[in-house]
Amino acid sequence: MDDYGDLRGRITQDDQYPFAGGGNANIYRGKFTRPDGRKIRVAIKMIRMSDDASIHQEALLKSLDREVQIWRRLRHKNILPFIGVCNDLAPLPVLVSPLCKFGHVGKYINGHPEANRSELILGIASGLEFLHNNGVVHGDLKVQNVLVNKHGVPRICDFGISKIVNLRGFTISNVGTAPYMAPELLFVVDGLGTSSQESSFPSTTTSSDVYSFALLVLEVRSLPVHAILCS
Question: Which of 3.50.50.60, 3.40.718.10, 3.40.50.150, 1.10.510.10 would CATH assign to domain 105-230?
Answer without folding.
Answer: 1.10.510.10
